[in-house]
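Annex B. Sample input.
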Amino acid sequence: MIGSQSVRWIIQQIMVVFPFTMMGIGGSMKKILVSLGALIACGLAAPAAQAGPGAICIEREKNKAGNYYDSEYFARYGKTRSVDGFAALRAAKADHRKNYKNSRPYCRHNGKDAIKHTHMILIQSKRDKDQDGAHMNYWAVGFGTSRAAALRNAVEELKDRDPHWRSSIGYKITEENDL
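Annex B, continued. Sample output.
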């Protein structure tokens, strides 16, 4: 896959070669075509952005008021294109199971879309008390093709996980990774 910097470089090289050929200074057409082919081949061989799997499992516990809150998270991610988010999910669940044998965590992963997602962001709500005044905590993970897209996805996930959360409450970025 050709990256945007590689494409720019190829176009710059073509712009340098092309005017000379129009003026008859550049040599034979065969040399020009071979040079152009070599430039394109270099662009194809240039490393492209790698996307990989990402998953998170969150342990939930009850607070003094009997309401659930997020107490610990287990994140797994990497830059292995041959592995999808399901493999990362299995690894995150295994990490969780080591510490919480009889618990069922909340989990989220990027599944088969691991190739599309190049960024993962974990945010934490700034809401620290529930409606009963007891301790409260929520995390949400977002995946996206850019940092901004991953952050939007995480905010939407936080809204879904915590019905009392509003943007005026705010959040903080807990973890951020390129996939």
